[in-house]
Protein backbone atom coordinates (compact mmCIF):
# COMPACT_ATOMS: atom_id res chain seq x y z
CA UNK A 1 0.00 0.00 0.00
CA UNK A 2 1.30 3.43 -0.86
CA UNK A 3 -0.18 6.76 0.18
CA UNK A 4 -0.46 10.13 -1.54
CA UNK A 5 0.79 11.75 1.66
CA UNK A 6 2.90 10.17 4.41
CA UNK A 7 0.70 8.71 7.16
CA UNK A 8 1.77 9.78 10.62
CA UNK A 9 2.91 7.12 13.05
CA UNK A 10 0.61 6.55 16.01
CA UNK A 11 1.18 8.52 19.20
CA UNK A 12 2.45 6.18 21.90
CA UNK A 13 3.00 6.24 25.66
CA UNK A 14 5.93 4.68 27.52
CA UNK A 15 5.13 1.59 29.61
CA UNK A 16 6.68 1.37 33.06
CA UNK A 17 9.01 -1.60 33.36
CA UNK A 18 9.14 -2.16 29.60
CA UNK A 19 11.08 -0.92 26.59
CA UNK A 20 7.89 -1.26 24.53
CA UNK A 21 5.29 1.50 24.18
CA UNK A 22 1.49 1.69 24.25
CA UNK A 23 0.08 2.96 20.93
CA UNK A 24 -2.86 5.33 21.37
CA UNK A 25 -5.97 4.83 19.22
CA UNK A 26 -8.74 7.03 20.66
CA UNK A 27 -9.03 9.20 23.75
CA UNK A 28 -12.41 9.09 25.46
CA UNK A 29 -13.12 11.35 28.43
CA UNK A 30 -15.76 11.03 31.16
CA UNK A 31 -17.53 14.28 32.05
CA UNK A 32 -18.44 15.24 35.62
CA UNK A 33 -17.29 12.18 37.54
CA UNK A 34 -16.43 13.54 41.00
CA UNK A 35 -19.28 14.99 43.07
CA UNK A 36 -17.30 17.99 44.37
CA UNK A 37 -16.24 18.96 40.82
CA UNK A 38 -19.81 18.49 39.54
CA UNK A 39 -20.98 20.89 42.25
CA UNK A 40 -18.20 23.45 41.59
CA UNK A 41 -19.35 23.55 37.93
CA UNK A 42 -23.00 23.99 38.99
CA UNK A 43 -24.30 20.64 37.72
CA UNK A 44 -26.33 17.75 39.15
CA UNK A 45 -24.27 14.84 40.48
CA UNK A 46 -27.09 12.35 39.89
CA UNK A 47 -26.77 12.61 36.11
CA UNK A 48 -25.60 9.46 34.29
CA UNK A 49 -22.06 9.50 32.84
CA UNK A 50 -21.42 11.11 29.48
CA UNK A 51 -18.38 11.15 27.23
CA UNK A 52 -16.44 13.44 24.93
CA UNK A 53 -13.26 12.88 22.94
CA UNK A 54 -9.82 14.26 22.28
CA UNK A 55 -7.74 13.41 19.21
CA UNK A 56 -5.05 10.77 19.80
CA UNK A 57 -2.35 13.17 18.64
CA UNK A 58 -3.25 15.55 21.49
CA UNK A 59 -1.08 13.28 23.68
CA UNK A 60 1.75 15.18 25.40
CA UNK A 61 4.43 13.12 27.14
CA UNK A 62 5.56 13.59 30.73
CA UNK A 63 8.27 16.24 30.99
CA UNK A 64 7.11 18.07 27.87
CA UNK A 65 6.29 21.72 27.35
CA UNK A 66 2.61 22.63 26.90
CA UNK A 67 2.40 25.57 24.49
CA UNK A 68 -0.33 27.92 25.68
CA UNK A 69 -3.08 27.42 23.06
CA UNK A 70 -4.67 30.14 20.93
CA UNK A 71 -8.16 31.70 21.25
CA UNK A 72 -8.40 31.32 25.02
CA UNK A 73 -7.68 33.36 28.12
CA UNK A 74 -8.78 30.66 30.55
CA UNK A 75 -6.86 27.42 30.01
CA UNK A 76 -7.45 25.07 32.95
CA UNK A 77 -6.01 21.83 34.35
CA UNK A 78 -8.06 18.72 35.21
CA UNK A 79 -5.99 15.94 36.80
CA UNK A 80 -7.39 12.49 35.89
CA UNK A 81 -6.82 8.74 36.18
CA UNK A 82 -6.23 7.44 32.64
CA UNK A 83 -7.29 3.88 31.84
CA UNK A 84 -5.59 2.11 28.91
CA UNK A 85 -7.68 -0.50 27.10
CA UNK A 86 -5.80 -3.67 26.11
CA UNK A 87 -8.59 -5.95 24.90
CA UNK A 88 -11.33 -5.14 22.42
CA UNK A 89 -14.99 -5.27 23.38
CA UNK A 90 -18.46 -3.91 22.79
CA UNK A 91 -21.42 -3.95 25.17
CA UNK A 92 -19.03 -5.08 27.91
CA UNK A 93 -20.59 -6.29 31.18
CA UNK A 94 -19.60 -4.43 34.35
CA UNK A 95 -18.32 -7.68 35.87
CA UNK A 96 -16.03 -8.25 32.88
CA UNK A 97 -14.96 -4.63 32.32
CA UNK A 98 -11.66 -4.65 34.21
CA UNK A 99 -10.48 -7.63 32.12
CA UNK A 100 -10.31 -5.22 29.17
CA UNK A 101 -7.86 -2.90 30.95
CA UNK A 102 -4.15 -3.07 30.05
CA UNK A 103 -3.08 -0.59 32.69
CA UNK A 104 -3.39 2.99 33.84
CA UNK A 105 -1.60 6.30 34.08
CA UNK A 106 -1.94 9.91 35.15
CA UNK A 107 -3.25 12.52 32.73
CA UNK A 108 -4.38 16.12 32.58
CA UNK A 109 -7.54 17.00 30.64
CA UNK A 110 -6.43 20.47 29.51
CA UNK A 111 -9.47 22.63 28.88
CA UNK A 112 -10.06 26.01 27.23
CA UNK A 113 -12.75 26.77 29.82
CA UNK A 114 -13.94 29.97 28.16
CA UNK A 115 -14.53 28.18 24.84
CA UNK A 116 -16.21 25.27 26.63
CA UNK A 117 -18.50 27.68 28.51
CA UNK A 118 -19.41 29.43 25.26
CA UNK A 119 -20.15 26.07 23.60
CA UNK A 120 -22.43 25.05 26.50
CA UNK A 121 -24.24 28.37 26.32
CA UNK A 122 -24.76 28.07 22.56
CA UNK A 123 -25.55 24.33 22.74
CA UNK A 124 -22.62 23.54 20.45
CA UNK A 125 -20.05 20.70 20.68
CA UNK A 126 -17.22 20.94 23.22
CA UNK A 127 -14.40 20.27 20.76
CA UNK A 128 -13.07 23.83 20.84
CA UNK A 129 -12.74 23.61 24.61
CA UNK A 130 -11.36 20.09 24.85
CA UNK A 131 -9.89 18.78 21.60
CA UNK A 132 -7.09 21.23 20.80
CA UNK A 133 -3.40 20.49 20.17
CA UNK A 134 -1.44 19.04 23.13
CA UNK A 135 -4.62 18.93 25.25
CA UNK A 136 -3.90 15.47 26.67
CA UNK A 137 -0.70 15.33 28.77
CA UNK A 138 -0.26 11.75 29.98
CA UNK A 139 2.28 9.80 32.03
CA UNK A 140 3.72 6.39 31.27
CA UNK A 141 1.25 3.52 31.56
CA UNK A 142 1.68 1.05 34.43
CA UNK A 143 0.40 -2.43 33.52
CA UNK A 144 -2.49 -3.80 35.58
CA UNK A 145 -0.42 -6.96 36.17
CA UNK A 146 1.89 -4.80 38.29
CA UNK A 147 -0.58 -2.46 40.00
CA UNK A 148 -4.05 -3.98 39.71
CA UNK A 149 -6.98 -1.62 39.19
CA UNK A 150 -6.65 1.40 41.51
CA UNK A 151 -10.02 2.53 42.90
CA UNK A 152 -8.79 4.54 45.86
CA UNK A 153 -5.80 6.73 46.58
CA UNK A 154 -4.93 10.40 46.51
CA UNK A 155 -5.23 12.24 43.17
CA UNK A 156 -3.69 15.70 43.19
CA UNK A 157 -2.30 18.51 41.09
CA UNK A 158 -0.15 21.46 42.02
CA UNK A 159 0.77 24.57 40.06
CA UNK A 160 4.22 25.93 40.97
CA UNK A 161 4.20 23.69 44.06
CA UNK A 162 0.88 25.09 45.31
CA UNK A 163 -1.77 22.39 45.65
CA UNK A 164 -4.83 23.13 43.50
CA UNK A 165 -6.61 19.78 43.27
CA UNK A 166 -6.57 17.21 46.06
CA UNK A 167 -9.06 14.37 45.90
CA UNK A 168 -9.29 10.60 46.08
CA UNK A 169 -10.15 8.06 43.40
CA UNK A 170 -12.83 6.70 45.75
CA UNK A 171 -14.80 9.92 45.10
CA UNK A 172 -15.54 8.87 41.51
CA UNK A 173 -19.29 8.74 40.90
CA UNK A 174 -18.85 6.16 38.13
CA UNK A 175 -15.99 3.74 38.77
CA UNK A 176 -13.71 2.49 36.01
CA UNK A 177 -15.74 -0.69 35.40
CA UNK A 178 -18.97 1.31 35.12
CA UNK A 179 -17.39 3.81 32.73
CA UNK A 180 -16.15 0.98 30.47
CA UNK A 181 -19.55 -0.69 30.62
CA UNK A 182 -21.37 2.53 29.75
CA UNK A 183 -18.99 3.71 27.00
CA UNK A 184 -18.90 0.28 25.33
CA UNK A 185 -22.68 0.35 24.86
CA UNK A 186 -22.11 3.28 22.53
CA UNK A 187 -18.86 2.52 20.68
CA UNK A 188 -16.55 -0.46 20.27
CA UNK A 189 -13.49 -0.29 22.48
CA UNK A 190 -10.22 -1.41 20.92
CA UNK A 191 -6.68 -1.96 22.20
CA UNK A 192 -4.97 1.42 22.36
CA UNK A 193 -8.02 3.34 23.53
CA UNK A 194 -7.57 5.60 26.54
CA UNK A 195 -10.31 6.68 28.93
CA UNK A 196 -9.71 9.82 30.98
CA UNK A 197 -11.97 9.23 33.96
CA UNK A 198 -12.83 12.70 35.24
CA UNK A 199 -11.40 15.17 37.72
CA UNK A 200 -11.89 16.14 41.38
CA UNK A 201 -12.60 19.72 42.49
CA UNK A 202 -10.08 22.54 42.30
CA UNK A 203 -9.75 23.02 38.55
CA UNK A 204 -8.25 26.37 37.66
CA UNK A 205 -6.26 28.41 35.16
CA UNK A 206 -2.60 28.21 34.21
CA UNK A 207 -0.38 30.71 32.39
CA UNK A 208 2.94 30.54 30.56
CA UNK A 209 5.75 29.97 33.03
CA UNK A 210 3.68 27.73 35.29
CA UNK A 211 4.71 24.18 36.13
CA UNK A 212 1.92 21.65 36.62
CA UNK A 213 2.78 18.59 38.70
CA UNK A 214 0.13 15.96 39.29
CA UNK A 215 -0.04 12.45 40.53
CA UNK A 216 -1.99 9.50 41.80
CA UNK A 217 -0.90 7.69 44.95
CA UNK A 218 0.83 4.42 44.13
CA UNK A 219 0.71 5.07 40.38
CA UNK A 220 3.04 7.92 39.50
CA UNK A 221 3.44 11.56 38.70
CA UNK A 222 3.39 13.84 35.70
CA UNK A 223 5.17 17.18 35.23
CA UNK A 224 4.33 19.64 32.46
CA UNK A 225 5.67 23.14 31.89
CA UNK A 226 3.31 25.76 30.39
CA UNK A 227 5.18 27.86 27.83
CA UNK A 228 4.61 30.67 25.39
CA UNK A 229 5.13 29.56 21.86
CA UNK A 230 3.74 28.04 18.73
CA UNK A 231 0.97 25.56 19.42
MN1 LIG B 1 -12.08 16.19 32.50
Keyword list:
231 residues, Fumarylacetoacetate hydrolase, domain 2, binds manganese (II) ion, mainly beta, 5-stranded mixed β-sheet, 5 helices
Q: Low-confidence spans: pLDDT under 50, at least 5 residues?
A: none
Residue fraction in strands: 25-35%
Compute the number of strand runs: 18
What is the overall silhouette?
Answer: globular
Radius of gyration: 17 Å
CATH architecture: Alpha-Beta Complex
Q: Mean of residue pLDDT?
A: 96
Topology:
Elements: E1 12-14, E2 21-23, E3 27-31, H1 35-40, E4 50-54, E5 59-61, E6 65-67, E7 75-77, E8 79-85, E9 101-108, E10 111-112, H2 113-121, H3 127-130, E11 136-138, E12 142-143, H4 144-147, E13 154-159, E14 162-168, H5 176-183, E15 194-196, E16 204-205, E17 211-216, E18 220-227
Parallel strand pairs: 3-15, 5-11, 6-18
Antiparallel strand pairs: 1-2, 3-4, 7-10, 7-16, 8-9, 8-15, 9-12, 13-14, 13-17, 17-18
Manganese (II) ion (MN) binds next to loops.
What does this structure look like?
Strand 17 (211-216) and strand 18 form a beta hairpin. The strands form 5 sheets. A 6-stranded mixed beta sheet has the order 4-3-15-8-9-12. It has 231 residues and is mainly beta. 13% of the residues lie in helices and 34% in strands. The chain has a single domain, classed as Fumarylacetoacetate hydrolase, domain 2 (Alpha-Beta Complex). The model has no long low-confidence stretch (mean pLDDT 96). The structure holds manganese (II) ion (MN). Manganese (II) ion (MN) binds at residues 29, 78, 80, 109, 198-199. Manganese (II) ion binds at residues 29, 78, 80, 109, 198-199.
Amino acid sequence: MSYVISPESRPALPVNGSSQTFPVRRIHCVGRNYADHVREMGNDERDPPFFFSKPADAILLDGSDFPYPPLSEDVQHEIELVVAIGTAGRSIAKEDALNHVYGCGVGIDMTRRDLQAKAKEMRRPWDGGKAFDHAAPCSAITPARDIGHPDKGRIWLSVNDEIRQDGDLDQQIWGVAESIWCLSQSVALEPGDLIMTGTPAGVGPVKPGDTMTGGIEGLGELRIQVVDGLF
